UniProtKB/TrEMBL annotation:
Signal peptide: none annotated. It comes from Elaphomyces granulatus. Residues 454-507, 576-605 are annotated as: Disordered. SUPFAM superfamilies: BRCT domain (SSF52113). This is BRCT domain-containing protein. It holds the Pfam family PTCB-BRCT. The lineage of its organism: Eukaryota, Fungi, Dikarya, Ascomycota, Pezizomycotina. It comes from the Eukaryota. InterPro entries: BRCT_dom, BRCT_dom_sf, CellCycle_DNARepair_Reg. Residues 6-97, 105-196, 342-425, 634-698 form the BRCT domain.
Length: 845
């Protein structure tokens, strides 16, 4: 097709359809048509809402958006959809461009509008950026010209940057961080915080407020059930002239549950839009329903009718322009049952505002979970637009999953619980409010077909029938909370349990999913009847993958580089270590998700037995650095009736190699679980049966003698204390305390006390205005106020401020080492030794 003969003009063998839209008006479309005709092409300009011409007539479709009625049919027919730039560039180069993917308007190729050039940055970073941009639909230019949209540089002192500034080009000069964050999220975010010469991410502190962002993607698509009709078609001045339904017949489903008066109003609006109502599904062009079920829904979907809900219908009437019901998640009917695994989730929102918040609240309900206005320890997840909020701090302290909205949206569109371990769901760019990219995820028709309207057995006898009513059901997942890092709080005790931190790459670039670059269509449908068209689809899909293979290969190569984008230098060793706490925290949920997938594939798999033991594990070296072994063992234990939990208050048994001072062990003592040796786990796994835990009770006389208490007696006292040992105690803690503030806060609160962070504030009177001081007045037993501290000079310099604060509040200041709290928590009785208290003569030189 790219022949360059004297007898054949550039577009001599091309039949082109130019689609008008908001982004490409009729004047611009006609200009494109004239330019293509001058080069020998045959061109048709399509102006919605008129009927789209037969798709088979065209070799190319030019559109600035994929949001036009025939897009899905074009994908099925393997007709390329390209942006207007393809035509302009082909004419400029005097040849048809073969790499059409870089001109694909599909929003999943989120860098398809980017033409990037690189300044004075390391070669490794340059290769990674080029590979990522090409893989996500962008273009690389080695030189600066008018077409370059972004120059990646570290300063404005490079030759390319000076050229951009001297010529006053519209090119944006950005830090490499922007591409890194875009690729990690799989979405394009605003460049402003990364733009040189004075980028916000380098000059603003991490605690500074992050501006909220306007989001146009969800206007008119934030609710499943609109509370009112669109603006009336008849005003006091004139009648609105709608044309969106011109020549269309719309069928309304009985499951909408609307009254006769509202139904009449909707019919009037449709008729004013030059459409009509029908009760014959075969004649209908659009089918409006509430749920993804029923014969009409399945038939309409299989016949490729436009299937949407009332919210979508109102959107069409309001804007008088067509949009696909698959473009926005809440424009499509919902399922009564929700996503498998979401039942029981309690999700709260933070930092999302306005319509974005309403959209996420409704999406959570549609997914089958519960959205809570406030955050409590009973929540399972926190969805946040950035990491700076009191809710985020509290969620981390309570061991909840903290993720961005992409986890929810992609679980919904894939109709499968996505693992929170995916770095895309836990990445929060420093100065970006992710509310700006809410609503950009679209539904996948192939996923909908597999789950809600699969091909019947009469169409394809070799495929098993899977209708919505008899789809394999998965058990709701219980709440999984984060696993603690196995590091002793105070290391003067035996620490054979202390695991070596697992090394890895934090925040590395995310692998692009190959299916993103394959046009949506029947080549992806596993239950589509075998026809010549589907065979052709598979062949062309393979050809497309070969076409993009070089870009993906380069992208994959750069992914494997240690450190990802290094911004002009290698990261520190500590930046290359994945926090074991974070990495382990989602293994239970990821394992559950994999189990659900296996159950779907193997419907006859036996159910797990009832849970007999809720086991909390600490110091199990067998799993350190071996995630695959950990997953396998956990599944085997679950088959024996043992559920491995991560939250101390839910455990009935605690397994450890010895008496440890890890957060898990110390916190668990307050709940008086049965404490067994690690051998209990090993024997259960080796014998593949549930052995008697009373035969493996933990015995550690050496450590008991060192600490000065009996483990059995401590457990007995914990049963009597009922988590109220420190009730009435207020404990302050320095931020730089060894072991971390969060660990000691959890210990105090597990025993009924209150713990706050002390940063040197001296006022105690107003709690609402001064959270740092703790507001401890009237809450300390014996009129004492405690401060947990070490003996470093930086910590000691805060002691006078603490004393002043306590005295001003009428309290007796007690500055103590962490052993005071640990000995109390582990022995489960109030203890005091003079050696606990710290004084200035103990400060390190």
């Amino acid at each position: 097709m790219a022949e360059d003969d004297n007898d054949v003009q550039l577009f001599g063998k091309c039949n082109i359809c130019v689609v008008c839209s908001k982004e490409l008006d009729s004047d611009a479309a006609n200009e494109l048509a004239v330019a293509a005709k001058e080069q020998g092409g045959e061109v048709v300009v399509f102006q919605p809402p008129s009927a789209f011409p037969p798709i088979q007539e065209f070799t190319h479709i030019i559109s600035s958006t994929v949001d036009f009625p025939a897009y899905q049919n074009a994908c099925d027919a393997l007709i390329p959809v390209v942006k207007p730039q393809w035509l302009h560039t082909s004419i400029a180069n005097k040849k048809l461009l073969a790499n059409l993917r870089q001109y694909n308007p599909d929003p999943r190729l989120f860098l398809n509008d980017v033409v990037v050039s690189c300044g004075d940055i390391p070669e490794g970073d340059k290769d990674a950026i080029i590979g990522g941009v090409l893989a996500m639909g962008g273009i690389y230019s080695p030189r600066i010209n008018q077409q370059v949209t972004h120059l990646v540089d570290l300063t404005t002192d490079s030759d390319k940057a000076k050229l951009v500034l001297a010529r006053k080009l519209s090119t944006k000069i950005v830090l490499p961080h922007w591409f890194d964050d875009c690729l990690k999220l799989g979405k394009r975010i605003d460049e402003r915080p990364y733009t040189l010469p004075n980028p916000e991410i380098l000059r603003v502190g991490p605690t500074a407020p992050i501006r909220s962002a306007e989001n146009k993607h969800i206007i008119g698509a934030s609710t499943l059930e609109p509370s009112k009709l669109p603006p009336p078609a008849v005003s006091s001045q004139r009648r609105r002239k709608l044309s969106i339904f011109k020549g269309k017949q719309i069928m309304l489903s009985s499951d909408l549950g609307i009254g006769s008066r509202l139904l009449a109003s909707i019919e009037e609006l449709i008729q004013q839009g030059r459409g009509s109502i029908t009760s014959d599904l075969h004649k209908a062009d659009m089918f409006i329903c509430r749920y993804r079920e029923g014969v009409d829904y399945q038939m309409a979907s299989r016949l490729n009718k436009d299937v949407g809900n009332l919210s979508w219908l109102y959107h069409l009437i309001t804007h008088d322009s067509w949009t696909s019901p698959l473009r926005r998640l809440l424009h499509y009917p919902i399922s009564r049952t929700g996503i498998p695994g979401f039942n029981g989730f309690k999700i709260s929102l933070s930092n999302y505002a306005g319509e974005a918040r309403a959209y996420l609240e409704n999406l959570i309900a549609a997914a089958g979970a519960e959205c809570t206005k406030t955050l409590t320890p009973e929540n399972t997840h926190l969805l946040t637009a950035h990491g700076n909020s009191e809710k985020c701090t509290a969620a981390k302290e309570w061991g909840l999953y903290v993720v961005n909205h992409l986890w929810l949206e992609e679980s919904y569109t894939k109709w499968k619980l996505q693992p929170v371990s995916d770095p895309r769901y836990t990445h929060f760019p420093r100065r970006t409010n992710l509310g700006e990219i809410v609503g950009q995820t679209k539904l996948d028709r192939s996923v909908l077909e597999v789950n809600f309207f699969p091909a019947t057995t009469t169409q394809n006898p070799s495929k098993p029938k899977l209708a919505p009513d008899n789809r394999p059901k998965t058990e709701p997942k219980s709440k999984s909370t984060k696993q603690e890092q196995v590091v002793p709080i105070f290391n003067d005790l035996p620490s054979q349990n202390a695991g070596t931190p697992r090394k890895g790459i934090e925040g590395r670039l995310v692998t692009p999913v190959v299916s993103r670059f394959v046009a949506e269509g029947k080549e992806n449908d596993i239950d589509t009847p075998s026809t010549s068209s589907s065979r052709k689809s598979k062949v062309v899909a393979t050809q497309r993958l070969h076409e993009i293979a070089p870009d993906i290969a380069l992208y994959e190569k750069e992914m494997k580089r240690v450190g990802g984008l290094i911004y002009g230098g290698r990261r520190n060793d500590e930046d290359l270590v994945i926090n074991p706490k974070k990495r382990k925290s989602t293994e239970a949920q990821q394992s559950d998700s994999e189990t659900d997938e296996n159950e779907t594939k193997k419907q006859k798999k036996p159910k797990f037995p009832p849970i007999a033991i809720h086991l909390l594990i600490t110091g199990f070296e067998r799993w350190v650095g071996n995630l695959k072994k950990e997953d396998t063992d956990k599944r085997q234990l679950r088959e024996l009736g043992i559920s491995v939990v991560q939250e101390v208050r839910k455990c009935s048994h605690l397994a450890a190699p010895s008496i440890l001072r890890t957060p898990k062990f110390v916190n668990a003592l307050a709940y008086s679980p049965v404490i067994v040796n690690i051998d209990f786990i090993i024997q259960c796994l080796e014998k593949n049966q549930l052995v008697d835990p009373s035969d493996y009770l933990l015995v550690d006389e050496a450590t008991e003698k060192k600490i000065g208490f009996k483990l059995a007696e401590a457990r007995s006292r914990a049963q009597d204390n009922k988590n109220k040992l420190l009730r009435g105690y207020h404990v302050c803690c320095l931020e730089s305390i060894r072991g971390g503030f969060d660990a000691f806060k959890s210990i105090v609160e597990a025993n009924g006390g209150e713990c706050t962070l002390f940063r040197g504030k001296v006022a105690m009177g107003d709690r609402a205005e001064d959270h740092d001081s703790g507001g401890a007045e009237g809450k300390s037993i014996g009129n004492d106020l405690y401060l947990l501290s070490g003996v470093s000079p930086d910590q000691a310099k805060l002691w006078p401020r603490f004393r002043r604060m306590a005295i001003d509040a009428g309290k007796n200041p007690r500055i103590v080492q962490v052993n005071w709290l640990l000995d109390i928590a582990m022995s489960q009785e109030i203890r005091w030794k003079d050696e606990y208290e710290l004084s200035e003569d103990m400060v390190d030189e």
